[in-house]
Amino acid sequence: MTKDVIIALDFPTKEETLRFLDRFPAGEKPFVKIGMELFYAGGPETVREIKARGHKIFLDLKLHDIPNTVKRAMSVLSGLDVDMVNLHAAGGSAMMKAALEGLTRPDGTRPLLIAVTQLTSTDAAALKNELLISASMAETVLSYAKNAAVSGLDGVVCSPLEAALVKERCGKAFCTVTPGVRFAGGDVGDQKRVMTPEKAGRSGCDCIVMGRPITQAKDPVEAYRQAVREFLG
Ligand code: C5P
Question: Which domains can be identified in the chain, with CATH numbers?
Answer without folding.
Answer: 4-232 (3.20.20.70)
